[in-house]
Amino acid sequence: MDNEFEQLSNVIRKKITECPWGSEQTLKEHVEELLGEIKELKEAIENNDNINLNEEVGDVFYDSLFLVMLAEKENGAKRDDTIRRVREKIQRRSPWLFGDMKIDTKEEALKIWNEIKQKEKETKI
User: Fold this and answer.
1) At 2, is the pLDDT very low, low, confident or very high (cuts 50, 70, 90)?
2) CB 53 within 8 A of CB 45
C-alpha cells in the first residue's frame, strides 16, 4: 500500500491529466488558488479556529504539491528533484541543526539563515 504522500500525489496526477479543470490549470492560475488557501489559513490562525486549521493546512499543502506537479508537467521539473532541492537548501541554511554550529536564540538562527541565503544569491549572479 502506498503511503499517504504517494496517494495524494496520485490523486493530483489524475486530476492534472484527466479532469477538465485540472488539466487546463497553469502555474500562473494555480498560484492564485494557493494564495486563496493561504488567506483562509491565516484567518483560521487569527481566529483561533482550530476546527478549520487542519483543513486549511491540508489545503495549502495540496495546492503546493499541485503546483510542484504542474511545474513537472509544464517545465519538466521533477517532483522528487524539487523536494530534494528544498531539503538540501534547508539543511545548508541550518548548520546549527545539520552541522557543528551552536546557537541559542531564534534571532541567531534567522541571522545565520539570511547570511547563508545572501551568499548563495551572490554566487548565482
Assistant:
1) low
2) yes
